[in-house]
Amino acid sequence: TRTLVLDRVMKKFPTGTVALTDVSLTIAPGELVTVVGPSGCGKSTLLRLASGLEQVSDGSIEVSAASTSYVFQDATLLEWRSAARNVELVGELRGVPREERRQRAQEVLDLVGLRGFEQQHPRQLSGGMRMRVSLARALVAEPELALFDEPFGALDEITRLQMQTELQKIFRLKRFAGLFITHSVSEAVYLSTRVLVMSGRPGRIVAEIAVPWEYPRP
Ligand code: ADP
Ligand code: ADP
């Protein structure tokens, strides 16, 4: 079984820009794949296609995940809601009973290291903590597929390294399928054992790197 399959995907925007061409990839359940490439090579477009936000112009995409969640660079949190209520929102939209919603939000906030900060509002939190809330919100629905659009790109370097370690830990526990895009080679190599390198305009996958699992990790 495959959670995500792209077969010779091409994307041409109405402006005439061809953002991607001949992109094929597969992601198995529980596998985290990173895509690295310079800006403008079509990484965000690739994620938007995988999420269904955009339609392919040619080729095909097959998603066999019951649920997908999307994590962006700027943690788009609701400023008037506490961290816990931001995470609970997902359950509210799905009609999950209040107690269950609260309990699940508490569990994932613990998992991302935010115990004690549940009642804080986004503006009271640091950039790294806001990103943690964003991750918690993405994970609370137990997605089978998670799409990450350069989520740590705006963080300072130390926080970013912490978040990379954190995401690895969460990933080992939760085992969702993930597609993580970044322009940082070190981040891609650190996070995943399978790195796809994109480049060009239009962007295409020019190399696939298997990172040995023995790769030393802190
Ligand atoms: P990356 O995420 O790697 O920086 P993008 O996927 O954002 O690259 O963009 C790839 C190319 O597609 C760029 O040339 C960009 O200008 C173009 N592009 C992205 N979105 C649109 C859009 N909605 N309409 C027209 N062109 C777009
Ligand atoms: P960018 O490519 O966006 O400029 P990098 O990912 O190279 O940023 O990160 C900047 C610094 O952090 C580099 O010195 C890099 O070696 C280091 N770094 C990044 N990720 C890790 C990691 N997971 N473990 C150790 N060092 C890292």
UniProtKB/TrEMBL annotation:
Protein name according to UniProt: ABC transporter ATP-binding protein
Organism: Pseudonocardia xinjiangensis
Chain ranges of the ABC transporter domain: 4-218
Keywords from the UniProt entry: ATP-binding, Nucleotide-binding, Transport
Keyword Nuclease: no
InterPro entries: AAA+_ATPase, ABC_transporter-like_ATP-bd, ABC_transporter-like_CS, ABC_transporter_ATP-bind, P-loop_NTPase
Pfam families: ABC_tran
Gene Ontology terms for molecular function: ATP binding
Keyword hit for Transcription: no
